[in-house]
Target: L1 transposable element RRM domain-containing protein
Amino acid sequence: MDASIISWTLETKSMRSDTAGFQSRVTGLEQRMRSLETQVAASQDRDQDLLYLRSKLTDMEDRSRKDNIRLLGIPENEEGTDMQAFLGSTLPKLTSLEFDPPLEFQRAHRVGLKRSDKSSRTRPIVASLLHHNQTRQILQVARSHGPFRIDLHDIRITPDYSKETNESRKAFLALGPRLRQLEMKYGLLDPARMWVTKNGVSKDSYNSEELRLFLDSFQHQPMESTSASRPQDTSGDDEGNGTSPPGMEKASTPYMTLTPVKGAGKWKD
Model:
């Protein structure tokens, strides 16, 4: 009897020791989990900060390019040895605009490495104009006119956006087929913000995934009108269909893309 009591007492002590060990390990695990949760929260905060800083940098880069235009399709070496003089004489012919004062450039150059002589692809030309109102005039005419045609070459003039903004615009434009399928009116605002509307329901977003989710909800359930006036935008480079969004009827720049009209001309006088 005494032996069994002693054995039971020893087993109890052993169990208590094991339990204390388990509790210690559980406490250690809880502390590590709290530490990991703190690190994850800090990491998420850092990610948000990085996203914010990245968006600010992109915005600053786009603002620094506001006076730039990008010309696509001009044959290589057509500019000779003086790019600014070439553009100063070519842009008025392309756009049929009279500039007063005459066009002045901060800089103008082709982008990228020169391709082999056998390549038919041409490098874009980026030009930074001295007067912002002349940049706006050129982009407005380029947008309403469509591609210019000179010596059998189609010449396009576009804004000079940052890489991130161009990617955002492409993601928005990829939604075009679905928007047309839903018979929605839409437009791409400057620099990368899409506006959509149908039956009094409107939505604008800087994020293509957010807009995609909105289209999912719009497609699968009826929605009440939540439309609101959109701010004016006079960027001169919006794309879409239908009519202007509310609040933009008096904008100095057409909101939606017009049908391209081919022009004709020559490089030389």
